[in-house]
Design goal:
With 208 residues, this protein is of the alpha+beta class. It has two domains: 2-78, Glutaredoxin, CATH 3.40.30; 89-200, Glutathione S-transferase Yfyf (Class Pi), Chain A, domain 2 (Up-down Bundle), CATH 1.20.1050.10. 52% of the residues lie in helices and 8% in strands. Strands 2-1-3-4 form a four-stranded mixed beta sheet, covered by helices on one side. Helix 4 (89-118) runs antiparallel to helix 5 (127-150) and helix 5 crosses helix 7 (185-194). The longest helix is centred in the middle third of the chain and has 30 residues, at 89-118. The radius of gyration is 17 Å and the shape is globular. The two termini are 29 Å apart. The relative contact order is 0.14. The structure holds glutathione. Glutathione (GSH) is lined by residues 10-12, 33-34, 39, 52-54, 66-67.
Length: 208
């Protein structure tokens, strides 16, 4: 049995839920992190050393952390032929590169906007920092906009793990209340395309 640890409001948990649902795998999920707590004790730290979500656990004592690594592991272990994670080395490397781009280039400025706007009470918000985050995240989304101008999905003609990695974030980007979102028509069209995948619904909830 696959056990996913992490609250369903976390972007990094959402992408794993999306994959598990997309592959039709059976799993159970435990709400930890954020208001649920449960991540600071030694038992949880053995699953995720920083006390973050998600973490994955399987029968036999196997555990794993880092959301994008979890995505790749699930495909390797449970759906090795899935086109979400192509086996051909160059195609696979492209998927991995764009997953990495999400974690390394987009996440920081997108996080500044999300934490600054959604997780910070209005009287404590830093408008200048949020505006800088919007500008920097907008530039990163511009790069994704250019990709999906050339083909329907981030890496090519079909949905891959690269799209899953951005799915929770693009929903936030188009639905958080801020000014200065640069025009990105191809990004918007790709977001609408993601919504045609029924299993994407796990990423489309209220932004909290
Ligand atoms: N690089 C890690 C980042 C994990 C992370 O930052 N998780 C956030 C939620 S998106 C977290 O655990 N926040 C504290 C909490 O929810 O208690 C991953 O991709 O798994």
């Amino acid at each position: 049995m696959i056990r996913l640890w992490g609250r369903a409001t976390s972007s990094n948990v959402m992408k794993v839920i999306w994959l598990l649902d997309e592959l039709g795998l059976r799993y159970e999920r435990r709400d930890v992190g954020g208001p649920f707590g449960g991540t600071s004790g030694p038992e949880y730290r053995a699953l995720q050393p920083l006390g973050l979500v998600p973490a994955l656990e399987e029968d036999g004592g196997f555990t794993l952390f880092e959301s994008n690594v979890i995505l790749r592991y699930i495909c390797n272990a449970h759906a090795p032929a899935t086109p979400l994670y192509p086996a051909e080395p160059r195609a696979r490397a492209q998927v991995e590169a764009w997953m990495e781009f999400q974690q390394t280039a987009l996440n920081r400025p997108a996080g500044v906007v999300f934490i600054g706007l959604i997780r910070t009470p209005p009287e404590k918000r830093n408008a200048a920092a949020i505006a800088t985050g919007v500008r920097e995240a907008g530039a990163m989304w511009g790069i994704i906009n250019d990709r999906v101008a050339r083909h329907p999905y981030v890496v090519g003609e079909s949905l891959t793990l690269a799209d899953l990695a951005y799915g929770p974030h693009v929903h936030r980007w188009f639905n958080m209340p801020f000014e200065g979102r640069p025009p990105a028509p191809h990004l918007q069209a790709w977001y609408e395309r993601l919504k045609t995948h029924p299993t994407y619904k796990c990423c489309l909830g209220e932004i909290v």
